[in-house]
Write a structure and sequence with these properties.
The chain has 273 residues and is an all-alpha fold. It contains 13 helices and no strands.
């Protein structure tokens, strides 16, 4: 008798498809349908308005800076957690997941308190002429805080699974630490880094609760796209809100598609190597 790989596959598959359709496809379909009901001229007028364009620049620019920071700092943090033992390591490892568990509004209030002009971090920074709260820099801080775990948690297991024999072989051939890292370790980490960076950037694009408290929310200056869509919802302009939100949706989909393509190419390269 032919055995199934997964017992109960038809039932499990049916439940999965139903869940995805109900939780993911249905809301996205409603958003696309609402935006499509505008017609191209009205749709283009809304998404290309000066205020919308300014929000795109603020959102995408801040997300890019936050993602670059997370790429460097997140990889360094993952490296330390995997390669070194130190007092409080488990605590640091647990704190990495704090942005996942912490409500984003609470994170926003906490960051605003810390980085305000009279806050623990904000006061010394303001003293040297670097204001954080209610500036684009505050948006970057909030985005970096909420999206850092994506980079750490995608790189960390790959580092743990790396074969030490590869580094030992490179050392026996006279490779320096930098050469071993760039020529041996980094290519193996590239697919995980791409996944972490893409998830971090996508999370930053859609972040809302942690940002609105620290951003200042000034139109044309510190107003993010998600907030602009929310404002249109409060004005009962549902079509405009859907149109603006669709820009974020399309951007996220394109970015994830490009990232998956780059990941596939990187995996083929590492497998050949």
């Amino acid at each position: 008798m032919k055995r199934r790989v997964l017992p109960g596959l038809p039932l499990a598959l049916g439940i999965t498809i139903f869940y995805v359709a109900l939780i993911v496809a249905l809301p996205l379909g409603a958003l696309i349908f609402k935006a499509a009901s505008l017609g191209f001229d009205d749709y283009w007028r809304i998404i290309s308005s000066n205020r919308a364009l300014a929000s795109y620049r603020v959102t995408a620019g801040s997300a890019a800076v936050a993602t670059v920071f997370n790429l460097v700092f997140g990889m360094a943090l993952a490296w330390v957690l995997v390669r070194y033992n130190f007092p409080g390591k488990r605590l640091v490892d647990a704190i990495v997941d704090l942005p996942f568990a912490l409500p984003t509004a609470v994170a926003g209030i906490a960051l605003t308190t810390l980085f305000a002009a009279n806050g623990w971090f904000g006061a010394p920074l303001a003293a040297i002429g670097i204001p954080v709260a209610y500036t684009p820099l505050g948006i970057m801080v909030a985005m970096a805080f909420t999206s850092l775990p994506f980079v750490v948690r995608t790189v960390q297991p790959v580092l743990e699974d790396l074969d030490p024999a590869l580094e030992e072989a490179a050392q026996s051939l006279g490779g320096s630490d930098w050469t071993i890292f760039t020529k041996v370790i980094l290519p193996l980490l590239t697919p995980a880094l791409l996944a972490g960076v893409s998830l971090s950037f996508a999370r930053s694009l859609g972040e809302f609760g942690a940002i609105i408290f620290i951003a200042g929310n000034q139109p044309m200056q510190t107003e993010i796209t998600a907030l602009l869509a929310f404002i249109r919802l409060e004005e009962y302009d549902y079509q405009a809100a859907a149109a603006i939100a669709s820009v974020l949706l399309i951007t996220a989909f394109v970015m994830l598609a490009v990232t998956n393509l780059l990941q596939a190419r990187a995996l083929r390269y590492t497998q050949r190597s």
